[in-house]
Design a protein that fits this description.
By secondary structure, the chain is α+β, with helices and mostly antiparallel strands. Helices cover 26% and strands 40% of the residues. It is built from 4 helices and 10 strands; from the N terminus they run αββββββαββαββα. The longest helix is centred in the first third of the chain and has 17 residues, at 2-18. The chain is globular and about 40 Å long. The termini are far apart. The relative contact order is 0.19.
Length: 172
Amino acid sequence: MIFKTIGLGICLFSASAIAQWDYVNKVDDFTDEKVMFAAYSDSDHRIQLSHEGKSVWMFITRKKVGTFDPNGIIEIRVDDNKTDTTDPVKSKRLAKLLGKKIFQWEPSTVGFLLWHGKEDEGCGYMNQLLNGSILKGRYQINSMERDTFKISLDGAREAIIKGLGLKTCGAE
C-alpha cells in the first residue's frame, strides 16, 4: 500500500513538474518595460500567448531536433472545434497589403497573429482557449514530414487571463 502511494505521488509530481501553464509578469532588465504573457512548456514544445502591439500572438517553439518549414502550414485546434490554419505564404502576401506582420518564422519558432486583441469587438479564438480542454497542433518540418502536439488546457484559463491582461474575455 505504501509503495502504491509513493509511486502515485512520484507520477503526479513528475507530470506536473514537466508541463504546465504559467503566467509571467516581469520587468525587462534591458528596456525596463513590463512584460506579461502566458506560456506552456513540456519536453518537446513551448507555447506562448502574448501581446505584440495590441494584437495577441501565438508562438510555438520546437525543442526537438529539426526546424519548422518556413512555408509550411500550421494548424491548431481546440477540442472538436474548427481547425484554424495559418499559411505562411498567404500570410506574407496579406501582411504586405495590411502593412503589418501577421506571421514570423525562425528555424525553431513560428509566431502568428491569433486574435485582434480588442475585447470590445469579441473574444474570438480566445474563448476556445479559455474554455477548452485540449489544444492540438500540427505543422510541417519539411515538405514531406509533419509533427504534432497535444496539450492540456488545464490551468491555462487563469494564466491566459492574467498573461494577456484580459478584462472581459473569460469573465463568468
